[in-house]
Amino acid sequence: MLSPEATRECAERVAKRFPVYFVWFLLGVPWLMFLYFISIDRVLARGDVLHFLIQFVLFHTLLILAGIALVGAITRRPLRPDASLAPPDARPLRPDDLPRSIDPDDIPLRLLRDSPRNVAESSSHQRHTRESEAQEEGPEAEGLEEEGDRLIPKPDDETHTSLMAKSGTGGPRWCRKCDAWKPDRCHHCRSCRQCVLKMDHHCPWLDNCVGYHNHKSFVLFTTYTCFMALYGGLEAAHETFRFFNDPPPDITPGPDAAQKWDDWEELRVAFKPVALLLIAIMGIVFGIAVGGLAGYHWFLVLNNRTTLEDMNRLPPAALLDPETRSRLEALGERGSRRRTPGAWRPDHILTRNERNKLREEARSLNVYNVGWRNNLRSVMVGDGATPSSSWRELVHNIVTGANPLAPLKRKQYGPGHFFPHDPATLESLRNLTREMRVGIGEGREEPESEPEVYTGGEWTLGDDSSDSERTVCDESYGDRRRGRFDV
């Protein structure tokens, strides 16, 4: 006998997994209906064996591929960010923390070992040492030198640094719920209760998050399900058309036939056209619905965006250079309502025109868009895959991308934490961030003049000698939020 707590936990688990069971139901029941009413009762019954084999192979191939992709999307659980890859200044300052000054000599050994620059320097130093030793030892050491060069790990091309900042503070991204470093394109999922690498969205139909670990499986599942539904619906529509134009002989007995049906036979014969029409409508409608979702995700894949990045209302902000960030920290508490020139300005400090301009310009800057070929290859083949140099490699990448069982080629360093980016787009986003968030225009080192500020008694201009005149009082901020006046 189960206790009430165990019964409640079991009921909650079943209720949470019910959408997953319903998805399997939507795949299983149409398969049985299609196999019996279309393939066996219609195609095979009239002796069209070739059509039956082609239909059987195509439909079941799409069904198996969709099922494998669905299993991969469900079973591949979200991955937590690796805390050992966090930069030294990732943790934000707390109100009770003392100002931090990072000692350049106090660098973790992990960063020194994994840094591409240090790896290159160490490899060049080791190569120079081996060359000098080879000259002393003679030509016998040349083979060992070439073998040692092949054993040196090659770093990735892109830099292993964070690019994006928190729009509210301007500092590195940090998850307050997990109290851990949050890499670029990583978000905290309230359902999974953890941060998910390159999170796309949380899908209740999978009871899982769609992100860096299973994005390919989700895209393939929607694609193969769309093709399977459309193919089954079109086959059912064709059989429905043939049924009404050329009825089978078992339901059209001639005047001389002495066939008498019982109640079950009459119900079976009457249900045949209904079943064919139902399968056709279900297949076409379901295929169009899932096809819309698949098409949207293929659009995101080709543009290297996630659903959260495409629908997020908060404009992105680029992480500024260390010198500017240190000056922002020295100016005071980040994210406050102080309108100090050169300090970081959150959304509630910006005017309505500034917020609209920031949303329009920042949302159009996709830092991670490196070309549709590279975007497609990074998701379907793996971000560690190289461009195809021959037709054989191109065909291999296509087969790997279409196969839900093929393992992805992951990066050697920080997979899911660091991504390739477009340097020109990143620089444009940094210039926009300096202009709108810090008040430093492009090509100017000094912050632009601040607008008029209401200090509770009268309108004044910001003055460098007085902090009180550059501070928006809580009352004025509440009035401004209620639309009484605009700054």
From TrEMBL:
The keyword Lipoprotein applies. One of its GO terms (cellular component) is membrane. Keywords: Acyltransferase, Lipoprotein, Membrane, Palmitate, Transferase, Transmembrane, Transmembrane helix. It is found in: Membrane. InterPro entries: Palmitoyltrfase_DHHC, PFA4/ZDH16/20/ERF2-like. It is an enzyme of class 2 (transferase). The DHHC domain is required for palmitoyltransferase activity. This is Palmitoyltransferase. It comes from Cutaneotrichosporon spelunceum.
